[in-house]
TrEMBL record:
Keyword set includes ATP-binding: yes
Keywords: ATP-binding, Cytoplasm, Kinase, Nucleotide-binding, Transferase
Lineage, opening ranks: Eukaryota, Viridiplantae, Streptophyta, Embryophyta, Tracheophyta
Catalytic EC class: transferase
Main location: cytoplasm
Entry's Gene Ontology molecular function annotations: 5-diphosphoinositol pentakisphosphate 1-kinase activity; ATP binding; inositol hexakisphosphate 1-kinase activity
One Pfam family cited in the UniProt record for this chain: His_Phos_2
Swiss-Prot/TrEMBL GO biological process terms: inositol metabolic process; inositol phosphate biosynthetic process
Organism of derivation: Aegilops tauschii subsp. strangulata (Goatgrass)
Family designation: Belongs to the histidine acid phosphatase family. VIP1 subfamily.
Protein name (record): Inositol hexakisphosphate and diphosphoinositol-pentakisphosphate kinase
Domain of life: Eukaryota
Length: 482
């Protein structure tokens, strides 16, 4: 709890990429409406994800009118239910008309509401109708005879929500609308962040620039902390990436376990116990909340809870960073088999995540680049169709109005070795440099607190690409969750 840091600026970046995203959406609209197929999308293409508009269904122009018609049909049904809502509530006096606070506080499904034929959770029929009416109106402008393809993801999400939570309402055409919306959304959503890999990389580096910079700083902090532990002679001046207070505290901890790692006990106490306790609060688990065997150990895990746009952007930088001119000739950080799988996995649903794990091989010399390596995995989150076979294991989950979280999938080949140095080199041009971050605050773990002197040494120690566009940088070892 004491280590939680709220930084809303980490969610910034969309406005920086607004021009490129508008260009991508305009090109996407052109491909769909003109019934143009993505270039070279026949079966002989070796890398199908490299073409413009990859993933769009070939009959997208026919699916759009069908989607608008089905949306209108579902909206009309919900309207009739909304008109009869007062009668249902009158017959079922135990229900209030709309109690959002009460509904959001529940941890179980309200079976009584469902049995009474009312919407699940906090939504009334009136609000449900307003939701669908807005989708109907925004998707297709009858007066201008124009479709807004940016509404496709919203229609898809609304269908999925109602199939999971309001299947008992038996809305005719909802399942068919979901199938149509899914086909279109699978093509539209990934292409909103770039119509081809190079544009995806450009947009991704602008949206996730700050997040990636913080990730890289924390990776380097962790590495330097490990080096301090492995080599007691390692001085404060050498630990360029450690915050001042953490470096000072680290040098007081010289006791190690049998495997050479730091133990949970300290060999000496600060003269100023109050200051020492304050540092522990900032850099260590609070034993009042940490249900672990060694609550006073330093925290090496970072969890970033972010948005869908940042997850897409982060993933695009990871898989396409090698396309940058400054990295010409380098292979992608993501292996070919995973690139193909990601091409076919277009939705990043709730709880989707990217995990970067850093490992230290203590048998390797400190100066060897193989001492630290990175392992990357990702999960699509709750990416399961509510129309899955009802006889499967997912049947019980759907009855509970929940969807399972997909397990982690590797982004690299088994047995491959991605060193931290190689990782930094590949993603450094696309992230915010450390010197551009604001001054340290008590809760901002990993931010620098030593002033210009450290930043000058840092710049010389960590040479940035002078020719990199927009002055970008890299990523981190942790869990980025949507």
């Amino acid at each position: 709890v004491s280590l939680v840091s709220k930084d809303s600026s980490m969610l910034d970046g969309l406005e920086d990429a607004s021009i490129e995203m508008d260009e991508a959406k305009a090109r996407l609209h052109e491909i769909i409406i003109s019934n143009a197929k993505a270039k070279n999308t026949n079966g002989s293409v070796e890398f199908p994800w490299m073409v413009d508009g990859a993933g769009l269904p070939p009959n997208a122009s026919e699916l759009l009118p069908k989607m608008a018609t089905l949306t209108k049909q579902v909206t009309a049904q919900v309207k009739l239910l909304a008109e009869g809502e007062d009668e249902k509530l009158a017959l079922t006096s135990s229900f209030s008309r709309y109690d959002q606070a009460k509904a959001l506080g529940k941890t179980t499904i309200d079976a009584a509401r469902i049995a009474a034929g009312l919407p699940c959770g906090s939504e009334s029929f009136l609000l449900m109708f307003a939701r669908w009416k807005k989708l109907e109106r925004d998707l297709y402008n009858e007066r201008k005879d124009r479709f807004d393809i940016t509404q496709i993801p919203d229609v898809y999400d609304s269908c999925k929500y109602d199939l999971v939570h309001n299947a008992h309402l038996n809305l005719k055409g909802l399942e068919e609308l979901y199938k149509v919306a899914q086909l279109l959304a699978d093509g539209v959503i990934p292409n909103e962040y770039g119509i081809n890999p190079k544009q995806k990389l450009k947009i991704g580096s602008k949206i996730a620039r700050r997040l990636m910079g913080k990730v890289l700083i924390d990776l380097r902090n962790t590495r330097e902390e490990a080096i301090c532990v492995a080599d007691p002679k390692f001085t404060e001046d050498e630990a360029l990436f450690l915050p001042t207070k953490e470096v000072e505290h680290q040098q007081k901890i010289q006791v190690r376990n049998e495997d050479g790692r730091r133990s949970s006990t300290t060999s000496e106490k600060s003269m100023d116990q109050e200051d020492e306790d304050d540092r522990e609060t900032k850099y260590r688990l609070d034993p009042k909340y940490a249900n672990v065997k060694t609550p006073d150990r330093h925290v090496r895990t970072r969890l970033y809870f972010t948005s869908e746009s940042h997850i897409h952007s982060l993933m695009n930088v990871l898989r396409y960073c090698n396309l940058d001119e400054s990295l010409h000739g380098e292979d992608s950080l993501v292996c070919q088999s995973t690139l193909d799988r990601l091409h076919r996995t277009r939705e990043l649903d709730y709880m989707s995540n990217i995990v970067l794990r850093m490992f230290e091989n203590t048998e390797v010399p400190l100066e060897d680049e193989k001492r630290f390596r990175i392992e990357m995995t990702f999960s699509r989150g709750a990416d399961l169709s509510p129309l899955e076979d009802k006889t499967s294991e997912t049947s019980s989950l759907l009855q509970e109005h929940t969807l399972p979280i997909m397990g982690p999938e590797r982004l690299q080949e088994v047995g491959s070795c991605l060193t931290l140095d190689k990782f930094e080199k590949m993603v450094r041009p696309f992230a915010m440099p450390p010197e551009d971050f604001p001054p340290a605050t008590p809760q901002a773990l990993g931010y620098f607190s030593k002033g210009a002197g450290v930043l000058e040494r840092l710049a010389s120690f960590w040479p940035f690409h002078k020719g990199a566009a927009n002055g970008k940088i890299t990523e981190k070892a942790a869990n980025c969750q949507k």
